Amino acid sequence: MPEVSRFYGIIIQIYFGDHTPAHFHALYGEHTALIDIQSLALVDGHLPPRALGLVIEWASLHQAELHTAFALAQQMQKPPKIAPLL
């Protein structure tokens, strides 16, 4: 499960060979969430409101890169790192 970004204690991962629709996993402490890349909607899991807001803000800035990373991971290729939220 490659880590594509990390910021403010939040880890963003995209799993090799994962199912569609395109999504990523966000981990924050004991919380985990699955976020749809296209709609930026929370699909599953839970993050504290502030962490979820940061994840959505970051994802909105990197949507095209996330789509590319997901496509690569589906083909079992390592996705590139994506700049963190500053």
Distance between the termini: 24 Å
What global shape is seen?
globular
- pLDDT under 50 segments (min length 5)? none
- Helix tally equals 2
Instruction: Give the % helix.
Output: 25-40%
Structure description:
The chain has 86 residues and is α+β, with helices and mostly antiparallel strands. The chain has a single domain, classed as Copper Amine Oxidase, Chain A, domain 1, CATH 3.30.457. 29% of the residues lie in helices and 29% in strands. It contains two helices and five strands, in the order E-E-E-E-E-H-H. The longest helix is centred in the middle third of the chain and has 13 residues, at 49-61. The radius of gyration is 11 Å and the shape is globular. The N and C termini lie far apart (24 Å). 27% of the residues are buried.
Question: How are the SSEs placed, and which strands pair?
Answer:
Layout: E1 3-7, E2 10-13, E3 23-28, E4 31-36, E5 42-45, H1 49-61, H2 63-74
Antiparallel strand pairs: 1-2, 2-3, 3-4, 4-5
Annotation keywords:
86 residues; alpha+beta; Copper Amine Oxidase, Chain A, domain 1
Summarize the entry for a quick read.
The chain has 86 residues and is an alpha+beta fold. The chain has two helices and five strands; from the N terminus they run βββββαα. A hairpin with a 2-residue loop joins β1 and β2.
